[in-house]
Amino acid sequence: MIDSFLRYISFEKRYSQHTVKSYQNDLNQFEQYAQQQFNISSLSEATQLMIRSWVLSLMDEGTSARTVNRKIASLRSFYKFLLKREATTKDPTQKIKSLKVKKELPGFANEEEFSTFLDRLVFEDSFEGKTEQIILELLYGTGIRLSELLGLKVSDFKSSESTIKVLGKRNKERIIPVSKRLNELLKNLIAEKNHVFSHDQNSYLIVNKNGGQAYPMMIYRIVRKYLNQVPSLDKKSPHALRHTFATHLLDKGADLNAVKDLLGHSSLAATQVYTHNSLEKLKSVFDQAHPKA
């Protein structure tokens, strides 16, 4: 049943490989738990009690509320699929409530500090050095997600138009402009890549040292290597660069709807969280500058 569901979200819903893998991990984890604890032979036999038990076990293990909610959402989608295919007659997730999640503002780097950090960075004069530079520059310069970075093809970059085409969530495409500096860096990387490996315009833009497609841990390792030099960043992750991109744009007066489109958000509500960071900066400026503050 899990395999059928994964094929459904892969080929009919056209979810990304990263999303499909998350669903697979969540469902396999619950299946293993239900089999070990309740000795069921099929997930169609699962009950509300079993799911509640699993959720409690995850909480006992210290799993974050946000992660638990994602796993509950995976089960909801799975049982909705089974009902639609008449593979079960009940939905055990129907009365399962999501956990309350403490609202956290996205972490971002101080603009002045980050600008100085980028200007002082030195990369090896090699294909690997150029790749590392592009990874940082793309994540901060365009605000794309990790999965979107990994999916970029050489053909998605249009040097004459200074744009990249990004395949986002739910396979929605969007066009993002790149700066002159980033345009030149991308051209140099592609030229170096074609020199080191076989020329292939349909190949992935970011590859490992052997020419294979880059993978999440590789990107995390590179990002952490450099972001450890930025004290104002609590989390040294690719997503922190996306948060920094959005916050810096809004701090400079960018239109909220424009930032929404650049980030690939489906609703303005997801983008508005970044306005809190910008408001904090405005309050700070007001407190320092206004004579009656």
Number of helices: 12
Fraction in beta strands? under 5%
Outline type? globular
Give the integer mean of the pLDDT values.
Answer: 89
E-strand count: 3
Low-confidence stretches: none
Question: Could you explain how this protein is built, in words?
Answer:
This protein has 293 residues and is mainly alpha-helical. Helix content is 58%, strand content 4%. It has helices spanning 2-12, 17-38, 48-60, 65-84, 111-120, 127-142, 146-151, 180-196, 216-227, 238-251, 256-263, 268-289; strands spanning 157-158, 163-167, 173-177. It has a 3-stranded antiparallel sheet with strand order 1-2-3. A hairpin with a 5-residue loop joins β2 (163-167) and β3 (173-177). It starts with a helix and ends with a helix. The model has no long low-confidence stretch (mean pLDDT 89).
Descriptive labels:
293 residues, 12 helices, mainly alpha
Topology:
Elements: H1 2-12, H2 17-38, H3 48-60, H4 65-84, H5 111-120, H6 127-142, H7 146-151, E1 157-158, E2 163-167, E3 173-177, H8 180-196, H9 216-227, H10 238-251, H11 256-263, H12 268-289
Antiparallel strand pairs: 1-2, 2-3
Helix pairs in contact: 1-2, 2-4, 6-8, 6-10, 10-12, 11-12
